Amino acid sequence: MSNSTAARAVASRSGPRRKPGVRERAAQATRESLLRAAIKVFARHGLHGGSVEKIAKAARSYDRMIYYYFGSKEELFVAALEEIYRRFNEAEARLDLDPARPVESLRAVVHFVLDYYRRNPEFVALLNSENLHRGRHIGKSLRAREYSSPAVGILDALLRSGVSQGLFRPDVSARDLYLLIAATGYFYQSNRFTLSAFLGEDLEAPEAIEHWESFAQEAVLRTVLVAAPPPDGAAAVAAV
Amino acid sequence: MSNSTAARAVASRSGPRRKPGVRERAAQATRESLLRAAIKVFARHGLHGGSVEKIAKAARSYDRMIYYYFGSKEELFVAALEEIYRRFNEAEARLDLDPARPVESLRAVVHFVLDYYRRNPEFVALLNSENLHRGRHIGKSLRAREYSSPAVGILDALLRSGVSQGLFRPDVSARDLYLLIAATGYFYQSNRFTLSAFLGEDLEAPEAIEHWESFAQEAVLRTVLVAAPPPDGAAAVAAV
Amino acid sequence: MSNSTAARAVASRSGPRRKPGVRERAAQATRESLLRAAIKVFARHGLHGGSVEKIAKAARSYDRMIYYYFGSKEELFVAALEEIYRRFNEAEARLDLDPARPVESLRAVVHFVLDYYRRNPEFVALLNSENLHRGRHIGKSLRAREYSSPAVGILDALLRSGVSQGLFRPDVSARDLYLLIAATGYFYQSNRFTLSAFLGEDLEAPEAIEHWESFAQEAVLRTVLVAAPPPDGAAAVAAV
Amino acid sequence: MSNSTAARAVASRSGPRRKPGVRERAAQATRESLLRAAIKVFARHGLHGGSVEKIAKAARSYDRMIYYYFGSKEELFVAALEEIYRRFNEAEARLDLDPARPVESLRAVVHFVLDYYRRNPEFVALLNSENLHRGRHIGKSLRAREYSSPAVGILDALLRSGVSQGLFRPDVSARDLYLLIAATGYFYQSNRFTLSAFLGEDLEAPEAIEHWESFAQEAVLRTVLVAAPPPDGAAAVAAV
DNA sequence: CATGAATGAGCTTTCATTCAT
DNA sequence: CATGAATGAAAGCTCATTCAT
């Protein structure tokens, strides 16, 4: 990683807010398209496999610009990581949950997570790359902490509500529940190729996806509910 | 991948069984140490990051030998994949379960899977690499099918036994259960670096590992048990 | 080197002498700090090793300004050469010698040269760079001749005086004497690193420097004096 | 600089002496031609200016071979430095001096040094490059000490002999004398381009060279002789 | 069987320079 | 005047692979 770490934040001399000129907008666009391309390329080929040239070409820019805006390939990778986390948190923040209905809300969370992972395979792929490199880059990111999962907080609120309504067991932590949900979604998405090969079926088929989500829903609910839910699950809520 | 240069299986598979000469044993040793080194290096650096030179050096051999024994870097990768699957299956085969005691057996399976993933991080890392490359290599492996998970069969027997004893629900498939168990173990191991960073705790600490296993045990059991188990879970077994 | 982009001499050389405006003074300052930075950077890294970016950064300015004021990197290098020569001549001009006392004056010249080289290592380093490039740039400099050594003239006067006083041999040319003096000072400074390594001593230690100067003084004096000076040398002067 | 520092010494497993095979000889030739080319290219363009490609091409080989044999560009530079020192020492060792005739021997040494520098401009140029880089590489060379100047020892013997014969002053050290001789030869050669420009004459003209040598001879002799030599110098010897 | 030597494509990065406000 | 953005060539170095004993 470059020692100057001169990642350029694109203009914005942080002086008085003024309308960005045409050049600044173009620069912003260049930077963003490089970042977008980096996410795609790194996700498909990993940190080593994704060359700066591939990224630059995908962004219809030049290698040199990566160094201009991000300093180095590794710093670009860090920026890509930060960006996918940012996007995930943004999506999570749009989740509209009703704390008064903890079972439905929990189902919504499970759906959200599984759905997000499936629709954003780069998120999963980039995290895998980062873990291959033992978390080396995320440790260097100053913003890493900012993005530290609000999901746990959300689940905590749900759990509390469920417990107070006598629906949920009091001895399940939000952290564990979060990991369980993430695990079911992540593993299915991350390992879909090897799993498909070894199970002899296509895990990306819509029915397979739907089936897995309903199974995950049930596993999660059974883990937290005081009483096991009937097959459909809806009844359990009604029973309250 | 060159398809002409067939991976050499070390000396004579043909011909009558005879004691291997010193030459053959040495060759066997070279091949094996290359394979072992490849697993380590690929696990640590991925398919692209792990260069043939690194592997050859780690095996105290020469680049050339990789081509001699395996044909190409990619074929070596395939061999590495096959080898880790073989090892996993071998370990799984050593699992000694009592079908008459399905709850305990299921706990044993969960323990085995989580423990194996943790003790063999190369297994997880290599699978991640293979999935990054969209299962390209495992599809080419002739032996892949052979290694196709006996675990599902094992779980199937357990489930049947549990159902017949009135302990387990009849509507849980072995395949789903297998994925659930694998997911809890795999995700925790695979993502331990990013998770540690974002949760602000060390997932590799012994207490953390133990805690996660007992949580996973409970989640799995609650998913299959007709009646929810008491906190400890042991009582549920006793109740039978 | 682009010959169309003429090096800018900062604002108006033409036109009637008038007080420079604030704009011009700022420009002058930018130009000068670039030049100063260039001398430092070229001296430390050579013509190839010293990048325009390094120079611009060292001057807290921008790459672009180098092209604005100097036309190209090579022209900046020429300007740097001219500047160090200018400085050297300026310092030389401040030498206040008494032609009536040729021995002491000669000692003063030796001291001046050795001292100047030591205190201005960029002078020596830049000349080395220029000689590495076979004098390519100095040949292109129009001002080069202007700076052509007044030192020879100075020595010539001294020698004449010494000869007429019967102290100096009549058959020593100022040019040769100049080269001898410069050689002793230049070589010691220029090669201090390799010499220190091979002699196993630190040539930059104050005692080493002092010792070398007194040796150089003696060698120079013995070369020109009719009679060899006594060890101290002071006596020889007194003897006159 | 590579951390493995795997500079290959070309085969020679230091086992029993056997005739080198045709391949080993070819390898030796490749290595040597790369080294020779490196000396030429580094001398002409410096460490930064001399690219590995230029060197490889000059040696009719490939960039890759430089890394194969020397590990890195910098290690090749170190090897080049060692080689020119080795050559210089070798030449010096061929000097056949008669200690009984110190004046003539001293003249022979002066001639040798000036002549060697002139005929081997790469020696001077490479040392300049190394000094530009503050002796960074020679410090890393293990062999550096081996090549540490035997010249001083040679001069010491000469001085002792001269002193015992009453010809030389007893208070001149071999080290100082060596520096004086080297300085006259080195400076003239190293700075011939800028000096030619500023003196307005060609320092490489045969007469100029000859004139400088005889001046250097005289300066050196006058520095060590008890009595100043007559213009020709030969008489001084005859006087003994 | 084993191994040193060779090869060319590709990698990340830095360079000097020009463009467009 | 000053400056951020862009550009293409070239740098040092590593890669997977093949050749020749």
Sheet-strand content of chain A, in percent, reads under 5%
Q: Whole-number average pLDDT of chain A?
A: 87
Number of helices of chain A: 12
Quick one: which chains have the greatest interface?
A-B, 57 and 57 residues
SSE pattern of chain A, N- to C-terminal: HHHHHHHHHHHH
Oligomer: homotetramer
Description:
The structure is a homotetramer of 240-residue chains. Chain A is mainly α. Chain A contains twelve helices and no strands. The longest helix of chain A is centred in the N-terminal third of the chain and has 28 residues. The radius of gyration of chain A is 21 Å and the shape is globular. Chain A starts with 21 loop residues before the first helix and ends with a helix. Chains in contact: A-B, C-D. The structure holds a DNA duplex (21 and 21 nucleotides).
Descriptive tags:
homotetramer; 240 residues; mainly alpha; 12 helices; 0% strand; DNA-binding
